[in-house]
């Protein structure tokens, strides 16, 4: 008996997972990436004469076909500049579901590194990440898999939150364990995906809230936790040193007890915006002296001008000719 | 608060303060009321001119320069109107220029711009 080598098996798997686009308006151009249960391919839409991204479920996960279409429906209903728009969805000739979306030509934030700029630039990027997530929450949808590899910066600086494959409707009574208990299989790879016994993905360690890890009911605070971890990631190599007030914000967002976290994404975003504006933040109680000092620092030009005026007036009075 | 109104308010407040500081010059104490009124009006005029400039031109440097110029010019006008040999050019124009600078800075940094209306 001749056994196939690992590389041959891998090539067969890749070939099997490639979408069969026969008879469709799409032409395969290349592979963009591989997710938990599906691959994303670059295809040409011959009808609209543009390139789009096509996501198709892997052959091994055909029993999760309904989830891919549900993902497409969720994203299609969330029309926001920060959420990749869905263009089309359906079934391929090989029986696998697919959907097409805008092809984002950009970089993931984990690839940007020092290109993200200083603390202020990174915070502005973070605030733009919060917008589509808050929008989704307002429309009853949780992301549940927020992490740096799911956030892209487009060519014009636009921020896009990708991969809503684990998203779930809030009103449906979310159970992060879905159909069974969570079987953790992340071992040495902190970026590995936690798999359920069913084989579907439910989050990424490091960005997953404790209640999500434990298979409890989750709400928007699970995404708040993930955003806190993303904020920490964005600032990990920022210069100059991260101020204590800012570190307090991500610590509050990442609190193990969800009742002590920010209650919502807008609350988290407000505190970050307050920090950017030099205002007090709820995560870091300050003494009155610190507040006054910060007020002076924020208005130093004003104060300097008025001081100059008062000094000049005083000197004119003191040294006026008698 | 829009920029001209901010300029008006700030100019008025600083003008009052400017006028009151004349009390420290005994020679003009008898004319305090007129000085305060005149200084306030000067501040209001400077404020509205500088505020209107800030509405039209969005540049901190130009705003400060314009404020300084208006402050000096109006102060010069007040000095020229002084009766007698003593016009107090230095005592009036220097603080006047600083007040104009403060208003110029404030109206560029703060105050709402008018909203653009689509045709």
Describe the structure.
The complex is a heterodimer of chains A (322) and B (119). Chain A has 322 residues and is α+β, with helices and mostly antiparallel strands. Chain A is 38% helix and 16% strand. In chain A, the strands form 4 sheets. In chain A, strands 1-2-3-5-4 form a 5-stranded antiparallel sheet, with helices on one face. A 3-stranded antiparallel sheet of chain A has the order 6-8-9. In chain A, strand 2 and strand 3 (50-57) form a beta hairpin. Chain A is elongated. Chain A starts with 5 loop residues before the first helix and ends with a helix. The model of chain A is unreliable at 172-201 (pLDDT under 50). The two termini of chain B are 25 Å apart.
Quick structural overview:
The complex is a heterodimer of chains A (322) and B (119). Chain A has 322 residues and is α+β, with helices and mostly antiparallel strands.
Question: Descriptors for this entry?
Answer:
heterodimer, A: 322 residues, alpha+beta, Phosphorylase Kinase, domain 1, Transferase(Phosphotransferase), domain 1, 3 domains, five-stranded antiparallel beta sheet, three-stranded antiparallel beta sheet, 12 strands, B: 119 residues, mainly alpha
What does the largest sheet of chain B look like?
A: none
Please bin the fraction of helical residues of chain B: over 70%
Order of helices and strands of chain B: HHHH
Given the structure, what is the number of helices of chain A?
10
- Percentage of residues in helical conformation of chain A: 25-40%
Number of helices of chain B: 4
Strand content of chain A: 15-25%
In spatial order, strands of the major sheet of chain A run: 1-2-3-5-4
Major beta sheet summary of chain A: 5 strands, antiparallel
Inertia-based shape of chain A: elongated
The chain-level mean pLDDT of chain B equals 86
- Architecture per CATH nomenclature, i.e. the level-2 architecture of the largest domain in chain A: Orthogonal Bundle
Instruction: Compute the CA-based radius of gyration of chain A.
Output: 25 Å
Category from helices, strands and their pairing of chain B:
mainly alpha
* End-to-end CA span of chain B: 25 Å
Low-confidence stretches of chain B: none
CATH topology of the largest domain in chain A: Transferase(Phosphotransferase), domain 1
Mean pLDDT figure of chain A? 83
Greatest contact between two chains: A-B, 11 and 15 residues
Sequence stretches where pLDDT stays below 50 over 5 or more residues of chain A: 172-201
Give, in order, the helices and strands of chain A.
HEEEHEEEHHEEEEEEHHHHHH
């Amino acid at each position: 008996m001749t056994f196939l080598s690992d590389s041959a098996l891998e090539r067969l798997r890749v070939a099997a997972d490639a979408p069969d686009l026969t008879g469709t308006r799409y032409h395969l151009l290349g592979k963009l990436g591989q997710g938990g249960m599906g691959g994303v391919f670059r295809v040409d839409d011959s009808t609209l004469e543009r390139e789009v991204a096509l996501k198709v479920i892997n052959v091994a996960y055909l029993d999760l076909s309904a989830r891919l279409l549900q993902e497409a429906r969720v994203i299609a209903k969330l029309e926001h500049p920060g959420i990749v728009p869905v263009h089309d969805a359906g079934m391929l000739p090989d029986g696998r579901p697919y959907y097409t979306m805008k092809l984002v030509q950009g970089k993931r934030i984990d690839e940007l590194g020092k290109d993200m700029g200083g603390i202020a630039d990174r915070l502005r990027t973070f605030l733009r990440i919060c917008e589509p997530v808050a929008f989704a929450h307002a429309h009853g949808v949780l992301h549940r898999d927020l992490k740096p590899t799911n956030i892209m910066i487009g060519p014009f600086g636009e921020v896009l939150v990708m991969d809503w494959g684990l998203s779930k409707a809030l009103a449906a009574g979310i159970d992060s364990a879905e159909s069974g208990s969570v079987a953790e299989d992340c071992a040495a790879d902190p970026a590995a995906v936690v798999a359920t016994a069913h084989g579907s993905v439910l989050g990424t360690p490091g960005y997953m809230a404790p209640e999500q890890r434990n298979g409890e009911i989750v709400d928007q605070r699970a995404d708040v936790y993930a955003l806190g971890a993303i904020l920490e990631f964005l600032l990990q190599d920022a210069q100059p040193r991260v101020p204590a007030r800012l570190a307090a914000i991500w610590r509050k967002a990442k609190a193990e007890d969800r009742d002590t976290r920010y209650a919502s994404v807008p609350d988290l975003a407000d505190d970050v915006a307050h920090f950017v504006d030099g205002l007090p933040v709820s995560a870091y109680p300050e003494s009155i002296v610190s507040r006054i000092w910060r007020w002076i620092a924020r208005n130093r030009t004003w104060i300097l001008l008025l001081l100059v005026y008062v000094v000049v007036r005083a000197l004119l009075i003191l040294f006026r000719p008698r | 608060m829009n920029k001209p109104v901010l300029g008006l308010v700030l100019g008025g407040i600083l003008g009052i303060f400017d006028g009151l500081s004349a009390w420290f010059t005994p020679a003009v104490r008898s004319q305090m009321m007129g000085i305060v009124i005149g200084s306030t009006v000067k501040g209001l005029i400077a404020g509205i001119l500088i505020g209107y400039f800030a509405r039209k031109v969005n540049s901190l440097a130009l705003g400060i320069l314009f404020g300084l110029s208006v402050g000096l010019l109006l102060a010069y006008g007040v000095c020229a109107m002084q009766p007698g040999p003593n016009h107090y050019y230095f005592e009036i124009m220097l603080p006047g220029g600083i007040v104009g600078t403060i208003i110029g800075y404030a109206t560029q940094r703060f105050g709402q711009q008018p909203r653009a209306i689509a045709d």
